[in-house]
Amino acid sequence: MSYVSRIDPDAIVALDVHTHIESDGHGHCSLDRELLDASAKYFRADQDRTPTVASLAAYYRERQMAAVIFTVDATTGLGHPALSSEEIAQQAAEHADVLIPFGSVDPRKGTAAIDQARRLAHDYGVLGFKFHPSLQAFQPDDPAYYPLWSALEELGTIALFHTGQTGIGAGLPGGRGIKLRYSDPMLLDDIAADFPGLRIIMAHPSVPWVDSAISIATHKANVYIDLSGWSPKYFPPQLVRQANSLLRDKVLFGSDYPVLTPDRWLKDFDQLEIKDDVRPQILKENALRLLGLRG
Length: 295
Description:
Strand content: 5-15%
Structural class: alpha/beta
Shape: globular
Helix content: 25-40%
Number of helices: 12
Radius of gyration: 17 Å
Distance between the termini: 25 Å
Largest sheet: 5 strands, parallel
């Protein structure tokens, strides 16, 4: 079943562009237990870390929200088998009133990753792809990966990259070998420049490189920022200022569910000094336009 959105833009109060599927419902998880536990401790998350596609859909439907869902294929980087992006997309199609599927491919698989990306876009209808350079252990601006970015540009899909600190591996010896430098947003600047038709979302406030992320998003028309993974009360003040001004059309609501719930995020966002006319832009309108669901 290929995905076709049934989301009514006027019926939802928010569109969460960053949620994770970490279990396929058959006992298989995208991360091993040590990494899952370290992430939960880092985020102080006490809710279920492994919701199924169906339970996630019910969760967001109850809140009159829509959500982008994905897994991360870090098979090579972690030596751990990935969940099936094809299966996630098929299940999302059954809940197309609230869910939007992104795929994930392992960039280190070369032409196989490109072939899989094409299948996911053409046969399953995914609207974008999620990458986590630190987990996948690759440097995004390495020319070796340019054929993949060229393919995504040609497909018209979105590339969503994790940036900044990651809670996965946090507090473990050596961070379990996960290298933060691969998630420096400045590594995405060359990609944005060399593939101007590729729409890029830099996920999270990019701490400790938030100023770099702001600079890239203000300079490159094809680059956006999602606000997931951090409670709004901890947002760097310069990011809040730019969200109210230069980046008012480039900033997107994302929670990072299930490690951070949309309930918690929105409660803290209510207390943030965001202009009244900017709030709906961040909560859904910017994402609706970017995803082609509005106008």
